[in-house]
Amino acid sequence: MWLDYPDPHPKDTVTPYEPICWPTGAVMDLAEPTDFAQAFGDVVAARRSNRTFGPLSLMDLSALLWYSCRSVAQRPSGLGFDLSFRPAPSAGAIHPIHVLACSQEQNIWQRYNPVRHQLIEVPDRLLPPQSAMTEISPALPIQKGTILWLAAEVGKTASKYENIASLIWRDAGALLAHLGLAASSLGLNFCPLGATGAKWGTALDETKLICGVGVALVGTPAIADVPGDIVKL
């Protein structure tokens, strides 16, 4: 059944919101990737959803997040938090979606800090990696890939807008699409999944709503990726 979301619109008076204070584990600084020259047309033509995933290096993950999610600039606002300008668009420059990464090899969730270009560990008692792996594996084996979870902090968008559901879903779609293009440009395999991870973050904060709005797998290409059955037009 199709859900007919009402049109969003700015509130007459904003409702200042204090963002969630994420539980902090180990912090890992990421290196700024080296620039690369690749024609945008080539990136678009090469983009595919691939279903085989080799291990993702820290350098590759760093580059993927840098070109997709990094905060390029910030501006103060009356919403209780800074607005953020990033490669992917977001309603009101709010960017309510956190990106978290997890692989079977590491078996921990790490949240991306877009301002400092860091990965910050989330304690597994609050966000168990195994539950996510168990949920998505029947649809697509994780293999040696890395799970990316898009977790929306709903209160950020709600501070400015009424009827926010479609705004957050559109933010999620734009971010997934941009991650896919960035992965293509880096020569990585990327596949959005049907799961949203809607319930994965329920233990993170009892008073604020963290809601999963998308999941993807990313990894290095495998030998089986040779597209022998694809006809180039």
Automatic annotation (TrEMBL):
<dbReference type="GO" id="GO:0016491">
    <property type="term" value="F:oxidoreductase activity"/>
</dbReference>
<dbReference type="Pfam" id="PF00881">
    <property type="entry name" value="Nitroreductase"/>
</dbReference>
<dbReference type="InterPro" id="IPR029479">
    <property type="entry name" value="Nitroreductase"/>
</dbReference>
<dbReference type="InterPro" id="IPR000415">
    <property type="entry name" value="Nitroreductase-like"/>
</dbReference>
<dbReference type="InterPro" id="IPR052544">
    <property type="entry name" value="Bacteriocin_Proc_Enz"/>
</dbReference>
<feature type="domain" description="Nitroreductase">
    <location>
        <begin position="45"/>
        <end position="196"/>
    </location>
</feature>
<protein>
    <recommendedName>
        <fullName>Nitroreductase domain-containing protein</fullName>
    </recommendedName>
</protein>
